[in-house]
Every structure is written in C-alpha cells, then in structure tokens.
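User: My advisor, Dr. K., asked me to get a structural model of this assembly before our group meeting. I'm new to this, so sorry if the format is off. These are the inputs:
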Amino acid sequence: MPLAESWQTAEIPGPKKASLIIKPDIADAIIRRAKRPIMIVGYGAVEYEVEGIKLIECLIELANKGKIPVVVTASTAREFLNRGFSPAALMPAVDIGNRLTDPAWKGLDGKESYDLAIFVGLPYSMEWTILSGLKHFAPSLKTMTLDCVYQPNASWSFPNSTIKDWAANLKGIVENLGK
Amino acid sequence: MVELRGNSVNVNIKELNSDIAHFRDLSITIGAITKETWVEPMGPTPYPSLTTLRSWDLKLLERYKPFYLPFCDLCCLCTYGKCDLTGNKLGACGISMAAQQSRTVLLAACIGASTHTAHARDLLTHLIERYGGDHPINVGELNVDIEAPLTRLVCGIKPVNLGDFEEVLDYCEKQLTQLLSVTHTGQEGNNLDFESKVFHAGMIDHVGMEVADIAQISALGFPKSDPEASLADLGLGTVDIKKPVILVIGHNVPPATEIIDYLKTRDLMSEAEVTGICCTALDMTRYSPKAKIIGPISWQLRYVRSGVPDVIVIDEQCVRADILQEAQHIHAPLIATSGKNCCGLPDRTHDLPDEIVADFVSGKITGALILDPVKVGEVAVRTALAIAPKRKKHKLLPTHDELIKLAKKCTGCVLCRRACPNDLPISYAVKAAAQGNMSGLDELYDDCVGCGRCESACPQKIPVHSIIVAAAEKKTRDESYRIRTGRGAIQDIEIRKVGGPIVLGEIPGIVAFVGCANFPKGSREVAEMCMEFARRRYIVCTSGCSAISAGMYRNEEGKTAYEMYPGAFEAGGIVNVGSCVSNAHISGAAIKIASIFARRPLRGNYEEIADYVYNRVGAVGVAWGAMSQKAASIAAGFWRLGIPVVVGPHGTKYRRMLLGRSDKEQDWYVYDARTGEKVYGGPVPEHLFFAAETKEEAMVMVAKLTMRPNDTSKGRAIKLTNYIDLHKRLIGGMPRDVHLLVRKQADIPLTMKEDIEKILKEVEWTEHEIPDPTLLSRMIRKSKEA
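Assistant: The format is fine. Below is the predicted structure of the whole assembly, which you can bring to the meeting.
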C-alpha cells in the first residue's frame, strides 16, 4: 500500500502535503515541542480496537501523559466519561475547526491560542476537509493526525499503515511521552 | 391570426394592404398583458437584482462567517492556471483561496438553480402546450389562498394561470445568467459578495422549484395540499416481476405520466408494472398511486442489474451517466426523453412508433432519443410488452457459485475500500465471501450508496457492486414498504392552526428532511430521525430521495414512518411534500407563517419576511445525504430565509460551512423592535450551515437549531427539554452550553430544574430580556411612533 497517498484515492491534495510520521519519536517530539497542544477526537476512536485495547484508552493515556486538553466530537463523550476522563469540551468537529482558524481565539480556557491540533477518529473525508481549512486559514497552527491512514492536509500524518504497525506507533508515542 | 399564449399575445398577419405600406407575413408579439387583481401594495423589492438584498445577506454573513474547507488547493478555471492558492497565495487573476471557495460554491448553486429553473421551463412549456396558458393554477382548492408564496414574495405578482409563470421564469433565467457571469475571471473578488450571490441563486432556485411544482400539481391532477394523499408501494419487493416492467428515472414527469395514460386508456394497467427511481418516481405516484417507487437515486445500479426492468426511460437530473451501458448489459432498451440528457442516442422523435418499437424488439437499436412525451408513452409500453417474454429478466447478478469464484480473485489490495465514499470495509467482506461467508457483503448492502466506484477501482475486474447486491438478494426481495404520495403545498388553514404554536415555540420546530441519498450509513438513519422528531411532536417534512428513504424502514410494529404518523402539517405529522421541486412548499410554509399568522406584507417584501422567519420560525433543514449541486442551491434558498441546514459528514465537501460563534456575545445582538435598543438575543440559531459527524450529533444539533430569539419561555422550555434530553441520550451528559440558551428562570424546564440551575450557578448566570427581535432597523416600532 502506498505510504503517502490519500487513503481515499481520488482525494488528491495540492502542492503542500503532510510530512510522514515514520516512527513514534517524531510524533513524540512534535507533541513535546508544542506549547499549547489540543487533541480533537472523533467517533471513530470509539470503534477502533488496537490489539485488544480500545483506541480511546490509548488516547486517554496520551492526553494524561502529555497534559493535552481533549475536545470530543459527536457521541464520543460518553465513552470518555465512562472511563472517568472528563474532556475539556464537547464540540462538533466543524465548530472546533472553525475556532482554530480564528487568530483571536484564546482557547477553551481563554488563555492563549493553540499551536498544535492533533486529530484522530473523524470520518476520513471530513477530517481531510477540516485539515484543509486549517492548512489554509490557520497559518500559525500545526496539525497532526494519529489515524492509521495518510491525511495529506495535516502538517504531519502517519502513513497508510496496517493496524499492527499503527498500534505499535501509538504505543510508542504514549510510552515515550511518559519518559 | 391572434394567438393567446400565456400572458403574451401573438398576432400573425398573412397579408395587409394599407395606404402607407403593404405587409406580408407580419408577426407581432406583445410580451405580456398584466391583469392586476391583487390589492396588496407592492413591497420594496419586487424582482430583486443581484444586489437588492445584499445588505440582508451581509447581516447574516456577519453572524455566520464562512469556515472554508477547500476541497482543492488549486484553481484551474482559466489558462493562467493551474494556480496554487495555498495559504495566502493569490491566483494569477488576484483571487484568494477564500474567494475561490465561495466562487466554487456559487458555481454549484448556479448549476443547481439553473437545473430546477430549466426543469420548470420545460415542464411549463409542455403543460401550456397541452393544457393552455390560461389553465388555472390550483394547488389546494379552497384551502389555499396564497398559492405561490415564493413567487409573490420575490416577484411581487400573484399568478392565476399557468401562463403567468412565464414572466417569473424569464426573471429567474435572467438572474441566473447574471449570477453565472459573476464567476468569470476578473469579476467578483470578495468572498462575502460571492456568498451573497450564492444566497441569491438559492432564492431563485426556490422560485423555479415553486413554478415547476405548482404547474404540475395544477395541470396533472396531483394531490392538492391533501394531508391524506394516498399511500403508494415502495421497494423492489413490491414489483410483480412476472409482468413486463417499465423503469423511469429522473425528475421531469411528463414521459412517465404518458406511459400511465397509455396503459390506462388501453386498459393495460394490470398487464404491466410502472416503476421508478428518484423524483420522477415520486411525482409519478402523485399522478397514479398504482405506480411503484423502487428507491432513491442510490438504487439505480442494483435495480437495473437485477434484470427486472424491461424498458428504461430516463428524463433529466440524477440519472447515472453510464445508464445506457447498464441497460445494454441486461438487454433492456433505453429511451432518453430530455434534450438535456441525450446519451449519444439517435433522435427518433419524428419516426413512427411502429418503427421504433420494431427496431427495439428486433435488437436493431438499444436506445433512442424521443423528445415527445406522448410518443414515449406508446413506445415504452409497446416495447415492454413485446420484449419482456424475450428478455426473460436477463440479469447481471452472479449466482452463489459465481459469486464465490469472483470473490476468490480478490488480492486484498483494498483499492475498492479506498474508492468507497463511505470507506466501507469491502475487501474484508469480499475475502469472507470467497470462503462462502456472505454476511459481510449482506451488511454492506445496507450502507452502500450504489456509486459503483469500487468496481471501477478493482484491478481484478471483480463486479464488486454486483456481488454485494447478489449476496443481499433476499433483502431486496423483502423490500416492501408504503409511502405517502407527495401532497404538495401546505394549506392556509394548517398554517393558521400551527403558526402561533410554532412562533411561540410550543411546537418545538419544523424539521425538513430533504435531498439526495449519499448517506454515511444507509437510508435507515433518515427514517429513524424522522420518527424520533415526529414522536417528539415536531412537524416533520420530507421531500425527494429523503422522502423515499424515510419510508424504507419499519419500526418494531412493522410500520413505516408514513403509516405511523399523519400526513398533516401539524405537531407529530410526517409531511411528504413530494419531489425535489416540492421543496418550495417547505420554504413556502415558513413564508406563509409570516404572512398568514403574523400578517406581514408579502408582496415583494423579501427582507422583512426573511427577518421574521429567521427570528421566529423554528425551522431546520436536514440534507443528510446531500450530494448534488441542486442540494447546494436548495440549501442556499433556505439560508437566505434564515433557515439553518444540517448536512451529513460528506457535506464538508461543499467547501464551506456557515457557523456562528456562541462564545462571542457581541455577535448575537438584535434590535428590540419595541424599543429600538440593541439587546442580546442569545446564540440562536447557532449555525446556518453545519455538517454533523454522526446521526446522533445531527439530531442534537437540529433540536438546538430550532431555537429562536422570539421563543416564549414556555416554548423555550419545550425546546430545551428536547435538546437536553437528546443530548443526554445521544451525546452523553448535560450540554455545556445550556446557560447560553436559558434567558429567564421561566425558560427552565421543570423536570430538569435541578441539573440546569446547578450549571447556571457555576457560571454565575443572570437573566436577560426576551426581545421582540429583528435585524432590521426599519422594523423598530418606536421610531415610527416618534
């Protein structure tokens, strides 16, 4: 499977495409470098299971270790609440995407703009278009996706991966952050 | 000879000798003779131009700023390009990415609006030829006085006869030419001006749709605002496949009505089945409830490949571009009937029916273009009757063994999945099928939108769509439902009954499920949403493919939405207005609430009526499977009236959302018409165009978007009850913005008092006044009194 092609074959991006996260260290460094990261988690996170562990559990661990506020979209909130994790906000994906394009927006806590938005679990084409909106209209924001498919409009994306490789990458990121 | 044609008069003089000259073959046409019978004074904006309503549009766009979602980083519309517009780069013509996105939206809206307007023009021309320009307009007998609310509002005329609509369409066509010209290189460069023109295209679209539907209702005897319009059969399982079967696909109904007429007049209705897909099917059942609807647009491939249709008749819009090849595969003749969709076929319009039928039956031709609906009726029926015994329902679906053999060719490259708009796990299902396990393919059938991209992508040439349909063949045989035929307009008397409760908020809202069938998870979700909102006593309207999909699901009692709920425009009703063009009755109903209930002047008075609808009428459109450019223009028509539209996750591909910011208090000030003061009205409705990720998110958002600044406390409490209850059930927990939606203590639903007061206390909430809201300074009453 081609590593850096849009997962949806026809959704070919323009000249500016995401850099590949070829190993967990890269994602880890990006997260560590960010001063104000935020994670946006879509409903897909509820549906994915990675080697017996629900993706959502991996994301909770990541959020806790990286001290990253989480915005949950659609009906994802219940799964977080059931695991004792309180998201920073429940907000539709287009709503948070829109706010991230506003340079005057000071974030959910009203303190400062975010400099890194991590996306995971949105429907592919929806994430593709929202990331495109951010690529063009949020020049100060870097974006990263943790999905197992290549999202060309992010600043950084995993390549198209097998579930096994993806699981190893996610685990690697979480473990590294804890160090 | 003097000929009356609609409102125009043609005078033809063969030869005239006079003192001053000698004329031969003189023809004089007088454009229109106005018969002024409407006493209402003309409002400020009859026949608005591109800029007449610009200030209104900009008011909305100031609140709902576009969030652009470029679907392409480039512009490739001229030979300067391709131009890379990434980030802050400008194109060679100077255009920015924001403007380019709005320009593309305008192009889509122009395509959609011109499609409906051209449809209306063809239909009107045909009906005037057939029934005369003086054929009276009648959409609801004595129950409807305001027969054409959009035409009255936008054009400032009160149509009486079919011919009166000609000048309305003249206006629409002129505006569409102007609008399309705006997209040329070097014209508009400001994104918000493009957006204003998108709204203009949407408004024109609704006028065009209204003309089309009123014309066909009036001339073809469709149900006239009838809440108890007949139920019709829906689903492939309702078809008697032993009979010759005709399939009609598209939107423009005359060829289909002529097929029915030919069968009826020869007492052949029981000898053949007339079936349809998409809006022609809906309109055909309005003409004769004995016709059958197979399904929405996404059923084209599966039904054709089933081999059941013996003759396929297409008209216009939403017809698959490869329909001729698909028809040829099952040996079914194809008849194209619209100049807009000729399929490369020879024009046989002027040939004798005997000759065309003989050529079809002998196999000399596989398709023909026939631009005469009456001839289509005869040729389609005679061909179907003659060819059915020969075809023996030749189908394109593999047998069980063939299916397994085909599935074994799969190499697991997943190109099928990567081509699927819904990212369905096709390759897993195909691999399982290779082992004889059909359950995966059977499940895919429910979610598949029937595009066939999986097949085109398959390097092994596996007919993926066909094997999905073949695996689910039992399901297709069980597709047997009942749908209420499209009733058309909403009666004035219904508006009088519900106008007050809607404006005061006691009926929590009008929710209209409209548009195409590009659903993220199948038809079932639309049906479930319809039933949920009807159960909650909203007024639910349906149209087009969504109206069909809403009927393709049975609840635990074995009943469809249309069998469960009444067809009246009342709390808890599910109102199928009809086909795509019937959408005009939904916007028309909102306009009629302002006119009939609130007695606001209607004639050429767009801005005031839109201001009323926006601030008071809790209507929301849901285009869950929106796919087409027509869906874009329909939505735009609702936006200009201040009616929010929710789309499915694919809707972000429309390139921009129109989103409010509930966290920006300054965005939500309105004039209080009583005092002239600018007061906080709250973030309602929060968005104008919104893509939901899941059905659950859509339902919660719909409940929120029905709120309006004018809601009484009782009404707001009802709306909050629905919003909070749905949020708790579908999202989880209390919504975190409830403090923004409660204006006074009296707004708080009694059953949720404790939970809500806890939140209000946490954020130190204080009460604020409920205004008499308007965005228009001229509507302030105090200044008038002063």
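One thing worth pointing out at the meeting: DSSP finds 30 helices and 24 strands in chain B.

User: Perfect, thanks a lot.
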